[in-house]
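Handout, section B. The chain below has 282 residues.
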Amino acid sequence: MKNTESKISQKKNIIKAIRIIFRSLAALLLLMTLWFFVPVTEDFDFSEGDPKPVRCVLITDLHSCFYGKDQKNLIKMVEKQEPDIVFFGGDIFDDRLSDDNAVILLEALSKEYKCFYVTGNHEYWSERCDEMKETVRKLGVTVLAGDCESITVNGRTIDVCGVDDPTRLYERQFVEQLDNAYAKTDEDHIKILLTHRPERTDLYEKYDFDYILSGHAHAGQIRIPFINRGILAPNQGFFPKYTGGVYELENGSVMILSRGLARESTPLPRFFNHPEIIVFEI
């Protein structure tokens, strides 16, 4: 009888221990999810000691996610950087979430800074891409779609080129946009390409852009600690090559790739992968 009671007691203790372990793991998972929801800034300096560099902010893959009432958390992050230019690198809107958060951010920042925007795949997936572009234009943001606009800041002229996301474009149309934009650049100016897709380096390397600004990869969504690798990125598959940070292409162009700001719009949470805005000086 005592042996039976002892065995029953042992089983109860084991079950209790298992429950404690699972609850602890669930709590840890929740805390990690919340921690990696916190946005950060990542800074890069290409100014080579210039006393008056051009300060830029790159925002991608917002997916109309929520960053505080009236997007104040995100707006304050940008204001703190005091940028000369703000670049919106696609998927600022989402195909499932309301446009409200995206519009609030665009409206607030366009009142303070010169802003440029290109489309991402989710704008096209919404089937309202033209409507979204028109909204962006009405807010005072320059929409680039196979075009180039020059801007002079701190005595430097920058040619800002931009292309649509190729989701709804034939390859030849995407190339035509790149050709048309690059044809309007000046070799004596700083040349920037704003594009949603980082994986199309095979095309970008055919042009002499100084900087290529991109997003889309979400940094592989889940990062592998210590080795700084992502698990899975759209259009690149498992263990993608381009996930976030700075890459020097074979032709010498520098690609600056943002991990983006998507949070509640994604089916999987971000692990070891804070949402971010990128700040860089040229």
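Note. The chain has two domains: 1-35, 41-281. Compare this with the example in section A.
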